[in-house]
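> call design_seq(struct)
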């Protein structure tokens, strides 16, 4: 193909592209002019804050104009909120709200309050952002009522919180006072803290203290403002049991149930005068019977009574003083009370002892050792003589002249 023809094709193609672009611009412009602006996203910067300023973001489908703070309004429980700033034409805007009290706040965009660059107004229904919570108050702690006195050294104390709060560090944990007391465990719930206490000694005074600014809520507020101490709980003292005093012996005699018989009083005799009576003549003396001679049997041993039995026999004979003989009189003696019964003494008879066994004679072996010594000496002499004789036979020079 010739170069001139190539150039002609290039000029034709470039002119065609220009015509197509112009026609496309005319076709698209009316479509944009008829498109109403809408809100794609409308959200809060944070869900909670303790700052004095709340921030919100607005994003539309296209650049908008005629956007002012009067097109917005705040809703929620927070009061005194003010929307600041002016807005330039764009599709992304930052909305700042100041002066709000504690509470919830959100921003609402009015219907048909903004327009695009082609003066299309919208959105038709308006739009509302997400809510944010403004909280600049520190958490409040309160100890629940507890008994002032407990019987046991193990018990629990509970504190409540008006909102969720977390301990900022282990070095800020609550403290415990009381002799022997220590924490068995601390349970942190959403709005309460339970302190399990044990080991307290009797009469101990127990107090739990929450340190100042040791907890933080979800918006970063620290509490409590000052150290908070629980009411004092006192452990009961140990009960000392006193020993009962010994019973005082009563002076009134009581009947004894012992098996020991009570002594019988000896009746006293009343003497009466009786007429004299001649004593009877003594009976003739009897001749003593011949004493048989003892017969001793072989290997018979006469048992002897134990010493204890002999002493018991001697002690059985009680010598009582004899009253002097009263002179005879004619008065009659009458006994008003019966005479005492004669005492019967039980005399322990001697127990027979076993006869000692005869000891068998032992052989006298005292002559064995001297005889053995003499025999050994004789044998030694004979052996020596034999040795000398054998040497003399071998060597005659050793013979004595």
């Amino acid at each position: 193909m010739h170069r001139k023809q190539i150039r002609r094709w290039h000029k034709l193609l470039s002119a065609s592209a220009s015509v197509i672009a112009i026609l496309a611009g005319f076709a698209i412009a009316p479509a944009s002019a008829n498109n109403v602006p809408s809100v794609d996203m409308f959200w809060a910067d944070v869900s909670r804050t303790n700052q004095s300023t709340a921030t919100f973001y607005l994003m539309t489908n296209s650049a908008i104009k005629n956007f002012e703070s009067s097109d917005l309004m705040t809703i929620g429980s927070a009061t005194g909120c003010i929307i600041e700033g002016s807005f330039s034409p764009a599709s992304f805007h930052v909305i700042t709200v100041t002066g709000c009290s504690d509470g919830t706040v959100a921003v609402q965009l009015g219907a048909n309050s903004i327009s695009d660059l082609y003066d299309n107004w919208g959105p038709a229904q308006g739009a509302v952002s997400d809510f944010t919570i403004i909280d600049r108050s520190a958490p409040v702690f309160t100890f629940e009522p507890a008994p002032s006195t407990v019987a046991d050294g193990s018990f629990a104390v509970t504190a409540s919180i008006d909102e969720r709060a977390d301990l900022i560090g282990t070095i800020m944990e609550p403290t415990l006072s009381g002799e022997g007391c220590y924490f068995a465990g601390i349970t942190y719930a959403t709005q309460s803290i339970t302190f399990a206490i044990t080991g307290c000694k009797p009469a101990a005074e127990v107090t739990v203290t929450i340190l100042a600014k040791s907890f933080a809520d979800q918006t970063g507020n620290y509490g409590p403002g000052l150290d908070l101490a629980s009411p004092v709980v006192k452990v009961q003292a140990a009960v000392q049991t006193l020993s009962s005093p010994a019973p005082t012996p009563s002076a009134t005699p009581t009947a004894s149930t012992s098996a020991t018989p009570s002594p019988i009083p000896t009746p006293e005799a009343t003497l009466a005068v009786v007429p004299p009576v001649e004593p009877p003549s003594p009976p003739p003396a009897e001749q003593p019977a011949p004493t048989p001679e003892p017969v001793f049997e072989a290997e018979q041993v006469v048992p002897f009574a134990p010493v204890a039995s002999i002493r018991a026999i001697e002690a059985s004979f009680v010598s009582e003083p004899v009253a002097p003989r009263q002179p005879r009189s004619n008065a009659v003696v009458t006994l008003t009370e019966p005479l005492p019964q004669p005492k019967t003494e039980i005399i322990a008879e001697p127990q027979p002892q076993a006869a000692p066994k005869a000891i068998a004679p032992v052989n006298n072996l005292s002559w064995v050792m001297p005889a053995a010594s003499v025999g050994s000496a004789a044998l030694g002499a004979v052996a020596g003589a034999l040795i000398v004789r054998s040497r003399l036979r071998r060597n005659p020079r050793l013979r004595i002249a």
